[in-house]
Structure formats: C-alpha cells, structure tokens
Amino acid sequence: xxxxxxxxxxxxxxxxAINDISLExxxxxxxxxxxxxxxxxxxxxxxxxxxxxxxxxxxxxNNMEVSDWPAQKRNAxxxxxxxxxxxxxxxxxxxAYGLKIRKTEKKEIEKKVAxxxxxxxxxxxxxxxxxxxxxxxxxxxxxxxxxxxxxDILLFDEPLSNxxxxxxxxxxxxxxxIQKDTNITSVYVTHDQREALSIADRIVVMDSGKICQIGTxxxxxxxxxxLFTADFMGHLNVFSCGIIEENGERYYExxxxxxxxxxxxKSIKILLRPEEIDISKNGVDxxxxxxxxxxxxxxxxxxxxxxxxxxxxxxRRRVGSFKVNxxxxxxxxxxAIHVIEGEL
Amino acid sequence: xxxxxxxxxxxxxxxxAINDISLExxxxxxxxxxxxxxxxxxxxxxxxxxxxxxxxxxxxxNNMEVSDWPAQKRNAxxxxxxxxxxxxxxxxxxxAYGLKIRKTEKKEIEKKVAxxxxxxxxxxxxxxxxxxxxxxxxxxxxxxxxxxxxxDILLFDEPLSNxxxxxxxxxxxxxxxIQKDTNITSVYVTHDQREALSIADRIVVMDSGKICQIGTxxxxxxxxxxLFTADFMGHLNVFSCGIIEENGERYYExxxxxxxxxxxxKSIKILLRPEEIDISKNGVDxxxxxxxxxxxxxxxxxxxxxxxxxxxxxxRRRVGSFKVNxxxxxxxxxxAIHVIEGEL
Amino acid sequence: xxxxxxxxxxxxxxxxxxxxxxxxxIQNDAGWYSEYYDAETMKxxxxxxxxxxxxxxxxxxxxxxxxxxxxxxxxxNGEILQRLINEKESGVVIADLWFTGGADTFISASQQGxxxxxxxxxxxxxxDIMKDKDGxxxxxxxxxVNWVINTELIEKNNLIMxxxxxxxxxxxxxxxVSMSDPASSGTAYNTVSAILQVRGEEAGWEYLDKLIAQxxxxxxxxxxxxxxxxxxxxxxxxxxxNGDREMEENNEHIKLVYPADGTGWWPQPVAIIEGxxxxxxxxxxxxxxLSKRGMEAYARIRNAAVARKxxxxxxxxxxxNDINLFPVDFQANAESRDQILLDWAEHxx
Amino acid sequence: MKxxxxxxxxxxxxxxxxxxxxxxxxxxxxxxxxGIKSENSLFFSMxxxxxxxGYLKNSLIVSFSVTxxxxxxxxxxxxxxxxxxFVGRGLLKLLVLLPFVNPPFVGSISYIMLFGRRGLxxxxxxGLSISPYGPWGIVVIQVLxxxxxxxILIASSIKKTDTTLEAAARNLGANENDILRSIxxxxxxxxxxxxxxxxxxxxxxxxxxxxxxxGNFQTLASDLYIQITGLFDMKSAAVSGLILLxxxxxxxxxxxxxxxxxxxxxEETLSSSIEYEEINAYTKFFLISFTAIFISxxxxxxxxxxxxxFTKQWGYNYTLTFSHVNELIGKQYKPFINSIKLAFITASLxxxxxxxxxxxxxxxxxxxxxxxxxxxxxxxAVPGILFGIGYLVAFxxxxxxxxxxxxxxxxxxxxxxxxxxxxxxxxxxxxxTGLRSGYALLEHINPDMxxxxxxxxxxEIETFFRIMAPLMKDAFFASFIRAFTSGMITLGAIIFLLMxxxxxxxxxxxxxxxxxxIGAGAAISLTLSLLTLFxxxxxxxxxxxxxxxxxxxxxxxxxxxxx
Lengths: 344, 344, 349, 563
Ligand SMILES: Nc1ncnc2c1ncn2[C@@H]1O[C@H](COP(=O)(O)OP(=O)(O)OP(=O)(O)O)[C@@H](O)[C@H]1O
Ligand SMILES: Nc1ncnc2c1ncn2[C@@H]1O[C@H](COP(=O)(O)OP(=O)(O)OP(=O)(O)O)[C@@H](O)[C@H]1O
Ligand SMILES: [Mg+2]
Ligand SMILES: [Mg+2]
Prior knowledge:
heterotetramer, C: 349 residues, alpha/beta, ten-stranded mixed β-sheet, 14 helices, 10 strands, 39% helix, disordered N terminus, D: 563 residues, mainly alpha, two-stranded antiparallel sheet, 23 helices, 2 strands, 72% helix, binds adenosine-5'-triphosphate, binds magnesium ion
C-alpha cells in the first residue's frame, strides 16, 4: 500500500499542528518520522489513520483518495503513544480484539495471540489486567495489539519509548522483521534519532508542523539540508567562517587548515559532527572541559582556541583514561566537513 | 535527606514486584535505577514516595523510620511514568498545585511557574489544557510540576522517555543542575543506560525485583559484577574459554592471543564490549555481516572464525565506507577484557 | 330525616367565676365566648394543629378574634392517628388540636387515650350524635356522601341523570361508575355500611353486588373517583364532601348530586390532644369553633354544612335539612368494620 | 497491611458509619421489628402473606420492565444528547431534565387528560378509547420520569469518556456497531448498572403512580401506603416493607458483585471532545428522532399543565384566565421558603456525603466498606413513607432512639418533634444518589490522579477538594439536581415528622388538589416547578461560576490577541 499526502493542514483551535505537509510513503517501506516534541508527529499519524480529520489536503492510499474514509476502513493499525489499551479487557483480550473484529477463528486467534505474546516477551501475561502491568509491559501490549492483525499499514507512535535498550533492540528487530516479511507500509514516529537511523528506509525530519527534510538515513545524517536537521540528528559543531580570497583562490581556515572552496558567498557555516573529530599527534591542542559518558561513546566538551567543540570518542579503556583538564591534540578529516552556505 | 531501605518486599496478588531490596541513597546524590521492563523500578519508587505500602521492610529518611508516614508528609515529589496530570487544571495550574498546597504567595507562585516553564521549554503553554498537549509536552509538565516545589527528595520515573534527544539532553542538564544546586536527594528511573551513565552519581541495576549491582557509572560499566549487569549496560561479546595449562603457566586464547590468567577455575567467561574492538592491521580477519548505524557510532555484526562478534566503530566518514560483506581486520586490547569466573 | 334532636341542657361548666360574667356578655356580642380566654397572655401564642383539610382561612379568622395563631398540618386520617400514637409514646406532644377528619379515627383515638376530654359549654348546642358523650370530640361540620357526575357524558351517552341509588345500576353506566375501596377509603366504607344498615344485610348485599358490577375497579383513595369523573374516565363517582359546591363551581361539566333516597355522612370533629401544654388556648379554640361566630365563619369560608342548626346558611350550600341522611351509628360502624370488609372482599371476587 | 490511612480519614469514616447506623439502619431495623413484633399483623396469616406476595409479583413485573426500558432510554438519550452534534441539541438537553422538576400530583392528571379513555390525544385526536389504568399505565408514567433520572446519571459519566479507546478500536478495524458493543457500552457498565439499580429501586418504592394509574393493579409499595393511610395498619405496612426490601437488597448485591471484577479507568481521564466526528446517517436519524419523540412526550405533558394553569377549566374550557394564578397570591410564602431551605441543605449535604463515601470506599479501601455501601444504599430501597415510619418509631425515644433502653423515667433530648429530624431523614435518603453517581464516575478516574496530589504534599482534605471534587463535579451536580428536585416535592418520608409550624410547599398543593380545583393545582404545581427550575439555574451558574469566569477571561485574552 502506497500512501500519498497532499498539502495537509490541521489546526487545533488556533494551534497549527500540521502546516501544509506533502509526503509519500512507498509501498513496503519503513518511514521514520523524526522531530522535536510537539512538532505534529502524532497528529500526522492520526490523520493517516483517519482518527482525526485534516482541515485541508488529501490522503491517497494506492492513488485512491481516502480522505473521507472512516478509520475502520483504512486498515491502518496504530500503536498509540499513550497505549489506549482497553481497561475492561485483559492482555489477551486486548490483543485479540482486532482479530475478533476480523472474525478470525477462535483457534487461530489463540495461536496468533500466543505467538505475538512471545514476540513481545510477555508470555504468561495473557490473563493479566491492564492495570496490573508496568509501563513497559503496557507498551508492549499496545505494540502486540497492532502487530497481530497484520494490517495494510502500520503506524507506530513512539512504540518503544518505555523500554530498556536491550528490549528495544529486540523489539525493533521484531518489528522490522514482521514489516519486511509481510511488506507492510509503515510510518514510525520516534524521538530517538538512533532508532530512526537504524530502523528506517527513509527518514522525515519535521519541525513545527513542517517537513524539514526527507531522505535515507545516510542522507539525513551526512547531508542534512539545513541546520535544524543537522543539529537534530546529533550534536553538531557549527563554525561560521569568513571566506578568504588569496591569489584567486577561495578558501577558509579551520584549526589552521586551509580548505579551498568553490562557493561564491561571503560567509558559510561549517558543520562538523562530534564523532568526526579524532585524536591525532598532528592535531591542534584542546583542553577537556567535561566528559559525558554515553556507553560505548563518551562526549567530550573541548576548548580549542576560542571555540567550544564537542567530540565523541569511543569509550576504549585506554581512551577512558583522559580526564577533565587534560590536554589532547585533535584533528579532523576535511572530507567530514559539511558546508552550508549563507546565513542559516 | 538520606534514604535507607531495609529488606523491602512488595507483592501484587502473587506477583513479587520487589523481592527483599536493601538500598541506601546518600544525601544529595543522584541515584539511577536501571533495569529491564517490569523489574520493579516503578514499584520501588512508589514505595519510597509512600504511594504504595511495602509488605515487609522499612524505609528510613535520615535514620527516621517513615514506613508508616503518609505520602503527603514525605515531601518526596515524583514524576509519574504516566504523568498523572490533573485533567481539570491547565498547565500553569498543574505546576502551581504543589506550591499552592505549600501556601506559597501568589506572586511567588507566578514567578516560579514562569521560571520552570522556561526551563522545560514550554513558555506560552501556561493556559493550555492538558488534553491539548502532545505526549512530550505532557511529560515536561509532569517534570515541571515536581521540580518546582524543590522537595527533599525527587523521584523520577522515566521522566524523559517521550522527548527527543536534544530536549532530553537539555532537560537532563537542567535536572542535574537543579538537583546539584539544591542538593536534593534523587532517585532516577530510566530505561536508558546511556542516560543513567551520564546523569547518575551511582547506579543501581535491578532484575526481577532484586538488586544486581550498585556502583558508580564507571564500576557498573567497566566492572560489572555479573553477566546480567554487563549485558544490560551495553551489548556484550561473551566468550567461554577453557583454561590451558602449559609449563606451569595458565592462560587462555582469544583470537590467537595467549592471555595469562591466575585463576584456578577450569573455565571462565570473557566479556568484551563492542567498543573495545578496534580495527588494526595486525588483527584477525572478520567478515562484516550487518551494519546498524546508531548516530555517532555504528554497530557492526562480524563473523570472526566461528564467533559472532559485535563491534562499535565510530562513525567517521572514512570508516563509514566499509560495507556489508567487506573483510576487515580487528584487534582488541587485553586490558579491555573483563573476566567472570565459572558458569554465570 | 335527621336524627332525634334531643339536646342536653345540662351545663357542666358552671364553675365560671362571677367576675367573668360581664366579660362574657361582651364576647357574646361578638358571637362567641370562652371562659378560658385571656387576651393578655394568649396574644401571639402559637398552637399546632393536625387535620385532613386546609383550614387556614378559618384559623385566620380565629386569630383575628383571639390573637392566637394556629399552624395546621394537613395529613391523612391514618397518618394523623399513627403520629399521635407514636408521639404519645415518646411523650413529645407536637399538636395541641385535631380539627377535621373522619369520626371513626377520632373514636379510635379517644379509645387509645390520645385525646383530652373537654365538654365545651358551647357543645350543648349540638345534637348528641354530633359529639362524643365524654367530650373527647365535638363535630363541627358534616361530611356527606354524594355523587360527582359528568353531565357532559350523561348527555352524550343519553343516560338518565342519576337521582337514587338504583339509578347507578343503569346499563349505560357499566364500567363508568367509580368508587373507592371501602378497605382503604372512609367514604366507600361509610357508603357500604350505610347501605347495609339501611337496607339490611341481604338486600344490602344484593344491591352492592349489582353496584360492584358497574365499577371497573376500586380506587385506593376516597378522592380518586371525583378526579376520574372530572377527567372523563368515569361518568359517576362516589365522593364525599362538606356539602360545598366548589367542585361544581370549578368545573362546568360537573354536578354534585345527593341521592334522593338517602346518603351516608359523618361529622368532622374537633378535639384536644392529650398532654398539650396549651390546654387553655386549645379550649378557647374549641369554644370558638363551636360558637355561632365560629360556625358561621366556617360555613361562610369553607362553604361547609355545619353542625349547628342555628347558623345562617350561605348561598350555594346544601342545606342538610333538605337532604335525606342515612341514620348512622358510628359506634356500630366501627365495631362491624372488620366483618363488613371481609364480606366485601368475598363479594368483589 | 494495605494502604494506610490517616487518623483524620479514620475519624471521618467512623463518623459516617455512625451516621449510617443511626439514621439509616436503626430506623429501618426499627420498622422491621415493629412490624414483626405485632401479633395481629397480616404477616402471620397465610392470607396476608399470599396477598403481599401477589403484590410483590406486580411490583416485580412493573419494576423489571421499567428498569429495562428506562435504562435503555437513558443510555440512548445520554448518548444522543452528549455525543452527537445536531441543531437544537441545547434545547433538548434542557427539556429532558423537565421530569426532574415534576409538578407533583398534577402530572398524572395531565397524563390522563391527554392519554386517558377520553383523553385529548388518545380519544379526541386519535379516536381511541383505551383505559390508561393498569400495569402499562404505571410503566409508561414511571418510564417517562425515570428515564430522565437514568439520563442524568449516565450523562455525568459519559462526559468522562476516554475517546482514544474508541479511536483505538476504530483503528483496529472495528465498525461503529462493534465499538458500541465492545468498547463504548462495556466502558459505560458502571454507570449503566448503577443507574439500573437506582431505577429499579425507585420503581419498586414508588407508591403514588400505582395509586393514581394502577387501577386494580396495585404494587407492594402502593399497598403499603394504603395500609397506612386507609387501613390505619402501620404494622402490616412495616411487614410489606420488609418483603419489599428483599428484592431490592438482591438487586443491590447483584449489581455490586457484577461490577467488581473489572476496571474502567484509563491513563487519560478527560478527552478534549467526546462528540462523534462522523456517524452513520441512519443511526443519527434514529437516535435523534427517538430522543425528539421521547422528549416531546415529556414536553406535551408540561405544556398541558401550563394550559391547565392558565385556562378556565382544564380539560373542558380553554378560556384564558389568570384566576388560578391570582389565587396563589394570597397563599403563604413561608412553606416555599421552608421547602427551598430543606431541599437545598439536604440535597447538598446528602450528595456531598454520598460522594465522599463513594470516594472513601473506592479509593481508600477501608474496613467495613461493603457494609457502608449497603447501609448508604438502603434508603433507596425503602419507600419514603416506610422510612418515615422508621424515624417515627426509632426517634421517639431519647438520645437518638437508643435511649429507650437507658432512660426509663427522665426525658432528655428527643429527636422527634424537633425541626432537625426532617433534615436528617432527607440527608439519609439522598446519600445514595450521591453514592451511585460518585461510584460510576470514580470507576473512570485513574487513582494516580489522587496519588500525584499526595505526592505533591496535599493532605487528604485538600486532595479531596482540589482534585477529586472537581473531577466529580458533574456527578455531584447530577446527584444534587436529583436530590434537590425530589426534596422540593417529597412528602411521604417527612409527613410523620413535620412540624405544623414548618410546613413545606408541596403540602399546599396537596391541599389544593384535594379540594378538586385542579386548575389551581396546576398553577401552584407549576409555580413550584418553575421555582425549582429557576433555583437549579442559579445553582448551576454558581456551581460553574469559576469556569464561566475562565471562559470569559479566555475570550477576553483572545480578543486582546486580536487587537
Ligand atoms: N487537541 C489539541 N488541542 C490543541 N492543540 C493540540 C491538540 N493536540 C495537539 N495539539 C498541539 O499540536 C501540536 C502537535 O501535537 P502532536 O501531538 O502531533 O505532537 P508530537 O509531534 O506528537 O509531539 P510529541 O513528540 O511530544 O508527542 C503540539 O504543539 C500540541 O500542543
Ligand atoms: N497492580 C499490580 N498488580 C499486579 N502486578 C503488578 C501491579 N503493578 C505492577 N505489577 C507487576 O510488578 C512488576 C513490577 O512492576 P513495575 O511497574 O515496578 O515495573 P517497572 O520496573 O517500572 O517496569 P517498566 O520499566 O516497564 O515501567 C511487573 O512485572 C508488573 O507486571
Ligand atoms: Mg506525539
Ligand atoms: Mg515503570
């Protein structure tokens, strides 16, 4: 099922949640929707599901306009951000609900429910009341409830936000496997860019109800179209440089390196991701101001000349021996630089 | 305020949520509570707050037993996992609630609410109804509501789970700053070990209602006491090795390296974190099976001889040029190895 | 014809002090007299009264004359009786007076010691049948059994306007006669017992059987038949009233008919409640209501047929002298009640 | 050791238990003992028992039908008027509440004039001649009245619907029918069953409708009334009351245990809007026309009463006149004030106590909660007049009734004969309405709401007033309306306890209607209704004043923005 959205607008008494969005989701793809809190992700998902109605714009499934279709005709199962589990049913009943509606045979329902309970690691929880679950368990029930019906479209609204890393990874793989196996077109809202990078075929970055960029994870990460996307996808070192013209050559200088540039503008912005910065004997001196350990990576706050620079170094034990106030020498590869022109 | 928990047990009709936990939280420290979904984190927090009552065991605040104190006397503000915002009050009223209860002056309340709204980046949302907020906005209101009263104890139950990375980092810093400035003893439940590592003074790792390990982030990460902790804190390569005795020397072999060991057991487990593996010309050959990009780091699934090994490499562009099915040479530093004896 | 009119000339209360004789003359001019009346102390006093009808306008008149205020609480006969029983048991006396209600409940109350005997000197004016011989109660007005007839429907259905009891048995009234249940309504019980007393057991039941066949169902309350006739649910309803024409005046299509061959009746008494703390004031009221002045006010305001015969009868009121009243023995009425009701239950099956 | 509760709560709870024992259980027990103790009561003759059982059957037939019909109607009304948008909804929402301000006595007269054998609509218009008397007459009249009760109870909770659940079901492919069957209705079960219970109890205890319209089909409650007022046999009445209690208690138990198994609260306690975005046109048409027809039935009756109050002779001569209204002018106004005072105080206190008990039982898990629940509900099952007798026979003794065994000679304070006893009996009777609506609503409130408040340092009282009370506000008002309106026209329960100097307004109507002047009766009933309606409007405004202020302020803010 291919989804096409044209010029969609949605306002809530005065607040514009979606501001003229056009978007295509290709058949069988997993599209991640990334964006800051309150930027309209949930709203977009709900309009696709038909749970709220857009003020303007159309939605097409396989080139058929569905803007006026009721939700139950769309066969687009959604994992709700707040779970929306039925409190008067137990775990199994919640999961079986969609199947029952589809008049699946009782035996079949039991089988499928058992299977999906295993997939979300909730074996033995079938008879539990919803109120007797922990936050993460509820979230997994919500996930299971949508996965089990194998719909045409799957809409995930931060489906793993309350799970620990290990479970999240395995759920993610499960979701990905099911989605690939059954070729279900999926839209996956997440607040976690790492998750988006690892699960999505393409990523949409949204800001205040608008789309900032659409692209593959690689494009989004390495070739952000604008500062917002770039910054959003990971902490960013931004340098404003003036362009120097010498002997007909145009270049700019960063940490003493002269880097040629073909650009005609007067000033540019240079983006350098923290992980592109390297420790090197030939580098420039930098003072460690702070170290924030992130598991396999630590983020270093460095002072280099007058710039504050963030750098991510892998957390090897030998590296771990750097301490705050140590001096290190840092370098970067010119190819790692991403240049954005003008005043962004 | 120092918190002491002694032999606490809590069962929910048959389900043991907390199984004999003893724990101390030092005055002014930020203790992170990590553990898999459903392991009893929320339950532990709620017993500290006095919202549910333990079946056995005692709680002391500053050596005073508070086991029987009602919640309102404990002055331990909690950020609820499900927010628990008051639906009949708007954002400001929700935040002001605790202050009103404390009979703070009206002017003062207004000032504080405005301040905290700024801190959680919700300026202009004061008059909004709770039902008109997005998931992440609600979560921030919940956070603000607890922070604003500057209680003796702060209990955070996954307070940032619905926020994007950028917001999360800034909220985290804000929380940390407030906590340090006011020296409020805090317990911080999170499912995100990176968050725990970066925010906590000490970390408690829990599993099925029990404590697995307590320690500083460093201890927990580098010197896990058991396989569960080790695995939970980041993906882990585990090798079971037999110990070889030759010429009176005891050693084991890993990727062709002979590593001496003083241990007397017959078999050991060797743990190697993915980030400790390095690319090196002198290393052993490994085939790339899969690459999962995680932002600044990518996780590589490698096949090395008959072992499947996970390795994290920093995501530099030059490294990024490796592709699935490429061969690379990998190595590791012996000092990076963590050995756990016997059959864990 | 009305009952024998032997009046007892004996006055019990000859103990009235001489000094008050002068006063009594003045009051006699006003049309009433009570030896217990003391304007100074009694002015503004409030008495409590139970009753089955709204007596407020009369009580207002009383207040005008004496300065004593009376608050009246309207309840049903049974409710008053039950309250008095229980209030007596607890020693809490709420009401001082009981004015209006069925004579049978007054008899029952006096037997249970709920009433305070007071032989009012004014009571001498009343016929014996109108009062209790021990002074427990005095009748004030008469309640008369009558028929409420929907004239519109009589005309429409070409029926004979009923005048005698036999007329209720005409074919056209089948299912159109409304009557209350003698077990629960004083009106109906009085009618039944009067018919039995006058016609004798056998003939009485014979007639009643035919009457029963005309009635679709027996209503629970005495007031229901009249309402049914007003609403057009029935054509004739057996009803009881004070002799007033109010219902006719309020409803153009309604006519109140007093059966020519006799009708049941009972007095509406006044009595003093045992244990009242305002005995003197209560006696004043009894004296006042039984006086010519009181009765006249009563007749005028309530359009009631009153017990005293020397009272001028205002326009529009039935003159009891024109009506053929069944001779009734209230005491016997009360005694045979259970038996009659048992018989009745069998006859309606 | 479960949830711990503070001393305050325990003391409060103890006081409540004391109140319930004293002012509900004691009188009810008294009346039962009173009935059983008497030697000559009907109870001890087989025939008497047979007779009572016959009436019991009638009662059950009527009450079951009424419960089924009125509850369904109430659900449909609540649904249509709160969840479907259509033109004129506001008006219907107002009109549906009319039966609450039921003009006493004349309502049934109006009904008979319209639908009786020679009724204006049934006979003159449609040419029918059906007797309205009998079981169906009772059912129809009770349904018309009790559907509104059902409506208001359900409506207060329907406003708390979490529509995301329906959205989730829709999203999983359920069509509107499925959703209704599997989500919406099951989620409304607490209020539906609560309502059904109250409707059942109200129908069982209603004696006036069978009296007026039952013909020779009388119920246990009306028979009980007849026994007291006609047969002067209060003891047999007490026994009938005892028999009447049995099915009522059974209904209570069934309702209670049926509900306890499931949970109904969700994370979200309020949805921003509960209206259906779209709804099947046929369904919409059906629901709206059903509602409109039902409400027009109610309306016609009221309109006709207005006609009665302003025409020369209701039913026959429709010349306009103000004579009935003029007659009112001379009437005492004090009874009206008394009525308002009584209804207002008892309705607020009763509803409040009921809500409080609901809250304590649901959220506090206190000891004896089943007992408290039962005791507080009991008055709903006892016909008012019987309850009144209970007070009469219990509180005629000193120290609130139990002094019977202590003081034999001295005469200390006796409740009977004081003005406060009618207040107490009314409060005792109104607790159950508050309790039921409180329960129904609390089922939907996430207990974490309360916990969050404690956690922020609020004590029990503050939490109750600041968090729970506002959340339960609608339910409180629903209960208040019901209690207030019924307080304005209650007579049966207090007739044995009233002081002559403290009469209530409804008595005046009783007097007028008894006099056969139904036009004046209509006028005075109407006055009482309008007064009630007006007061309700005032209360409603006061009650929501804070919100109005907010709305006004908001609009001002908006305007300022535009400027
Ligand atoms: N019912 C509503 N009324 C008014 N404003 C609303 C309503 N629902 C959402 N909004 C606003 O619309 C914007 C988009 O909301 P949405 O829920 O789509 O955000 P989101 O991207 O899902 O955010 P999050 O990551 O925090 O869940 C937010 O600013 C929110 O405050
Ligand atoms: N009311 C309850 N009745 C029965 N079991 C319960 C109840 N509440 C929690 N549990 C169970 O107790 C265990 C611990 O729950 P808890 O909420 O403390 O987990 P948690 O560590 O917070 O998990 P998560 O990270 O998923 O929120 C879970 O297995 C849960 O299913
Ligand atoms: Mg969202
Ligand atoms: Mg939790």
